[in-house]
Design goal:
alpha+beta, 6-stranded antiparallel barrel, two-stranded antiparallel sheet, signal, AsmA-like C-terminal domain-containing protein
Length: 661
């Protein structure tokens, strides 16, 4: 956790060195009943100094020029026997019998080789373990450390400030790394607390990572087959793209073991920053505070059956004061949180793939998707520089021109007012010749919630954006929204909701709410039910999902429009274009709604009901609602819409209700 996130090799080697550091700090006598005899034979506690100690741990070697063990009844020979690399007695058994007032190591060097020519060196200063009783150290500390990476594809260097830990269980640490288990035992706590201050690391690409402080609580895990050392070794020097099926299965199984076994009760980091100086434009990412919490889930505990219970037993993560800057681009998030997150589905799938004969399919890989829970953000802002705003507008203008027929473009250029009247919209203001201004967008709240995945596809989702504020000019090229600036809106204050749920058994997709609303504008809300929605609809292959879409049917739909000011502004702008009084134009729309709409829709009772409701809405614009339900329980499919001879033929297949108030 103290190194750059993408430095997996560095983190792995450092973890091994910390493990070895703890083991070295906890050197003790040979296990067995001889402990009592040794204490009886010792006349008094003593201080013992060991010189030039070297301990190999796989590809990592720990070297200490001097170790002083104070306040111990162990002799020098006892300690040398403990530190003997090929001792037949397990580390856990030896460490469980250690008693000393303190152990001090002025300099501890961790040297890790590989993969290839890569070499990692970490030098710890003033390492001390205090009050070591029964294999537990009440406190472990180091005044600082320096790290260097050389000889491989990545080179860099960094420093740590003070490092500290409390209630370190040396025997538990040894068991996790060296003693195999079934992965189902209780979580063994290794550290009560861990803290590291003033972390700085810079690589050869000019990327610098800084951490003011990081604190962890209740760090530990479960014993797994082959031990943690064996699981970590499975990843060493393996290229997944070139690995054979047996290697991939071994790595997959090791990943599942480690994900389930490792436990961090809580983690908090402050003053995190990442900067890049060698790119085309300097990059800076800052996080004021990051926090993570994960309750211990013991084997045999019943799985949560409600969202509240799931949130109480799932991991939660939050970030505060997040800032991003590159060139003229600036963005900031006041708070970002992720709750209800769980890797349980990922682990289950990894277990199935941990078989040399397994042939992962796209469907199986989708099942690796974890339970995402709820992602929430508050106080978001985005500032886009003027040159990027101008480029985006030019691109939108070119796209609109390309999609407009030549004849229409000629007519519009000759008489923009006539073109606006033909379209039934107010003319947009002419583009200013001056350079574009920087764009400022803010969002008060955003929340995205995903239900438990079914074959990798969330069965429910809800996206909610509240207080999205942006200049009206930014939607100038969006159909239906491009004239908002001409209606007097300078800034848009919008809320958006998309709430859906998929029932695989019924093959239905419920559109519980799809809505957009704007301050001093109104609300457009859509709800409904779609049938024939199979898992193939969510396939990543566009051809497969497109073919599955052809089997979808519309069973029911509810459309609601609420006016809170937009309609009045529309009438006012249109009346000026058409040289009519607002009341005159409104009456024309009433006539068109009451008489014209039914004619277009076939003059059926449903068509007349829709026209009448629209006329009432135009007369007194408040709320208009239209509901339609297919008479056939299976719904209306693509064929029904494409083969309908007229709108009337389609309406005959629906039960329609329309009203306004």
């Amino acid at each position: 956790m103290t190194y750059p996130k993408d430095r997996a090799r560095l983190a792995r080697a450092a973890l091994a060195s910390v493990c070895a550091l703890a083991l070295l700090s906890g050197a003790g006598p040979v296990a067995g009943p001889s402990r009592a005899l040794a204490q009886e034979a010792a006349s008094a506690v003593q201080d013992v100094t060991l010189q030039d100690v070297a301990l190999p741990f796989g590809s990592t070697v720990l070297r200490a020029p001097r170790i002083t063990v104070s306040g111990t009844r162990l002799s020098k020979d006892d300690l040398l026997a403990i530190l003997k690399p090929d001792s037949p007695e397990p580390w856990a058994a030896r460490l469980a019998r250690l008693d000393a007032a303190s152990l001090t190591i002025p300099e501890l060097r961790s040297e890790h080789a590989g993969p290839g020519a890569a070499r990692q060196t970490i030098v710890y200063r003033d390492v001390a373990a205090r009050d070591v009783r029964g294999g537990r150290a009440a406190e472990l500390s180091a005044s600082g450390a320096a790290i260097t990476m050389a000889g491989g594809s990545e080179t860099g260097s960094g420093t740590y400030g003070r490092i500290g830990a409390t209630d370190l269980d040396l025997a538990a640490l040894a068991r996790l790394y060296a003693v195999p288990g079934d992965g189902k035992g209780p979580v063994q706590r290794v550290y009560a607390t861990v803290s590291i201050a003033d972390v700085v690391y810079t690589d050869d690409r000019g990327t610098t990572v800084k951490l003011a402080r990081i604190d962890g609580r209740d760090l530990g895990g479960r014993q797994i087959p082959g031990g943690w050392t064996g699981a970590l070794a499975a990843f060493s020097g393996v290229d997944l793209d070139k690995a054979d099926p047996a290697q991939r299965a071994r790595i997959t199984g090791a990943a599942a073991d480690l994900v389930e076994a490792a436990h961090v009760g809580a983690l908090e980091a402050t003053g995190l920053s990442l900067s890049e100086t060698k790119g085309r434009e300097p990059l800076l990412v800052e996080v004021g505070r990051m926090a993570y919490a994960n309750p211990v889930t013991e084997p045999g505990r019943d799985a949560p059956t409600t969202p509240a219970a799931n949130a109480a037993t799932s991991a939660a993560m939050s970030f505060e004061d997040v800032a991003f800057a590159q060139g003229g681009l600036r963005s900031r998030i006041g708070r970002l949180s992720l709750t209800g997150f769980s890797l349980a589905p990922t682990v289950v799938t990894l277990r199935r793939l941990a078989n040399p004969d397994a042939k992962p399919s796209d469907e199986e890989l989708r099942r690796l998707t974890p339970v995402l829970g709820t992602l929430a953000m508050q106080d978001i802002s985005l500032d886009l520089p003027a040159d990027e705003v101008a480029a985006a507008r030019n691109s939108a203008t070119k796209d609109a021109a390309r999609d407009t027929p030549k004849e229409t473009r000629r007519e519009s250029a000759a008489d923009p007012l006539a073109e606006a009247a033909r379209r039934g919209a107010a003319p947009a203001p002419k583009a200013s010749a001056k350079a574009a201004s920087p764009l400022h967008v803010t969002l008060r709240n955003a929340a995205i919630t995903f239900g438990p995945p079914q074959d990798g596809v969330p069965t429910a989702s809800r996206i909610s954006l509240t207080g999205l504020i942006l200049p009206a000019s930014t939607v100038a090229g969006v159909p239906g929204l491009g004239s908002l600036a001409a209606y007097g809106y300078q800034d848009l204050d919008l809320n958006l909701v998309a709430d859906t749920a998929w029932d695989e058994a019924k093959r239905e997709l419920a559109l519980r709410e799809i809505s957009v609303s704007g301050k001093d504008m109104g609300t457009l809300r859509l709800a409904g039910t779609l049938g024939g929605i199979s898992p193939a609809m969510f396939d990543r292959d566009a051809a497969v999902s497109g073919l599955a879409l052809l089997s979808a049917t519309a069973k029911a739909v509810d459309l609601t429009i609420e006016n809170t000011g937009l309609f009045e502004r529309f009438i006012s702008a249109q009346s000026k274009v058409l040289s009519l009084k607002p009341d005159e134009l409104r009456q024309e729309y009433v006539t068109a709604s009451v008489f014209g709409v039914p004619v277009i829709l076939g003059n059926s009772p449903a068509a007349k009901a829709i026209g009448a409701a629209m006329g009432q809405f135009v007369t007194k614009p408040g709320r208009l609602s239209v509901s339609a339900k297919a008479k056939d329980g299976a719904g209306l499919g693509v064929a029904d819409f494409s083969t309908a001879a007229s709108p009337a033929a389609l309406l005959d297949k629906l039960d329609v209700d329309a009203k306004a108030n």
